[in-house]
Amino acid sequence: MASSDDQAVRATIVAAADRLYYARGIQNVGMDAVRAEAGSSLKRIYGLFPSKDLLVAAVLDHRTAMWWSGVDRAAAGAQTPREQLLSVFDFLNSWFRQDDFRGCAFINSFGELGATSPRVSEKVRAQKESFHSYVRDLVRRAGLADGVALQVTLLVEGAQTVAAITRDRDVVPQARRAAVVLLDAAAAEAGDSRAGQGAVPADGR
Amino acid sequence: MASSDDQAVRATIVAAADRLYYARGIQNVGMDAVRAEAGSSLKRIYGLFPSKDLLVAAVLDHRTAMWWSGVDRAAAGAQTPREQLLSVFDFLNSWFRQDDFRGCAFINSFGELGATSPRVSEKVRAQKESFHSYVRDLVRRAGLADGVALQVTLLVEGAQTVAAITRDRDVVPQARRAAVVLLDAAAAEAGDSRAGQGAVPADGR
DNA sequence: GACGGTGGAGAACGGGCGTTCTCCATGCGG
DNA sequence: CCGCATGGAGAACGCCCGTTCTCCACCGTC
């Protein structure tokens, strides 16, 4: 069958839905608007995505791919784990500058549907945990304690939230500067001696 | 007019709507559900709030009051601006522990309605900017550069986002530790004579 | 040219929701 | 006891939306 055609149409529909959902919010975009934006027909859409929920899931997968593509592109020139970690902020910087920037699609979707759609909720959690895991891996390769990975992750997520809401231009530079300070502090602690464990209750990971 | 009665009923309705909106998302809660939860009538509700949009605005105002009340309570025992800054994380900690915690209502509302409701968008922005301003004031009183205020704000917002999505227990402790590092670094930079003191208030929590 | 099937346009259906309206019970001043 | 304002219950209205269905134009095959 025309499976390759199907793949192309699928991609067109997902891209169209993504544009609309991101700009207006998922619940504010009807299937008819998606149809119009994709230049397709409802029958075709429902043939490829049996329900709106599944289309939303496909859009989130698409967003995941876009995210990693941006992260990878920014990390391409980095030589060390530390540089790779900091390159995330270069990615954020170019992303936030786009005039259609409206925050993190995952965070927005979670706010909108997290309480009612387990599918959405699960996709969002998977994406966030996978990014945290990516950061943790780089932190380990840099020879630092895991804790700083969560710290950097908080900066990245906070930057997305604050940039979306306030459009403050200093967000990414400050986030990056904070990350540098935190990485340096963790490096100093690691270089010090193994005595330097945080005073956290139950840090038995 | 029974204006004091009106005030009490207003508060009841707002509290009921807040509970439902926070738990399920604004768009997933109809006026009829609010009526049932508030034990009131639609006529009464529409007499006090001419439209759902205005009820939502009142709910956001209510959330703002709750936020500052929590922040103030946590800051009550703090002696210095630095302690006040760190007490924010104590507030977050007790908040995130509540089993009905579902993230920051402002961030959720923004994700849901930010693109379509200027009123919501504006309230959210005002709340976030007012918190940033609160942090900046404390940072200044601690004799530190403004930049670190944004850094701490990013940690606070990131903590709310990540805690909502992943329910990771380490979020607040790590956010607090990161804040300490950032404040210390800013103090060292400021060349303040008292900078190095009180680096990590051991079990001070 | 007839024909079956493919896919598009868009109407139709069922349900939900914001908002308004109708009807009625209640209580109070004459 | 009557009239009337008050406010509750919930039906009604209009609209939107997810999903399905109907109709029809088009295309390759006999």
Walk me through this protein's architecture.
The structure is a homodimer of 205-residue chains. The first copy, chain A, is elongated, with a radius of gyration of 20 Å. In chain A, helix 1 crosses helix 2, helix 5 packs across helix 7 and helix 5 packs antiparallel against helix 9. Chain A contains nine helices and no strands. The first copy, chain A, folds into two domains: 50 residues, Arc Repressor Mutant, subunit A, CATH 1.10.10; 134 residues, Tetracycline Repressor, domain 2. The relative contact order of chain A is 0.10. Chain A has 205 residues and is mainly alpha-helical. The interface between A and B is large, with 53 and 53 residues. Chain A binds a DNA duplex (30 and 30 nucleotides) through helix 3.
What is the typical, i.e. mean, pLDDT of chain A?
A: 90
**Can you say what the CATH homologous superfamily of the largest domain in chain A is?**
Tetracycline Repressor, domain 2
- Integer count of domains of chain A: 2
Q: Major β-sheet of chain A, in short?
A: none
CATH architecture type of the largest domain in chain A: Orthogonal Bundle
Gyration radius from CA atoms of chain A, angstroms? 20 Å
**End-to-end Cα distance of chain A:** 51 Å
Structural class assignment of chain A? mainly alpha
Name the overall outline of chain A.
elongated
Report the uncertain regions of chain A: 194-205
Helix fraction of chain A, binned, reads: over 70%
The overall strand count of chain A is: 0
CATH class of the largest domain in chain A, please? Mainly Alpha
Q: Biggest interface and its residues per chain?
A: A-B, 53 and 53 residues
Strand content of chain A: under 5%
Order of helices and strands of chain A: HHHHHHHHH
Oligomeric form:
homodimer
Number of helices of chain A: 9
Question: The CATH topology of the largest domain in chain A is what?
Answer: Tetracycline Repressor, domain 2
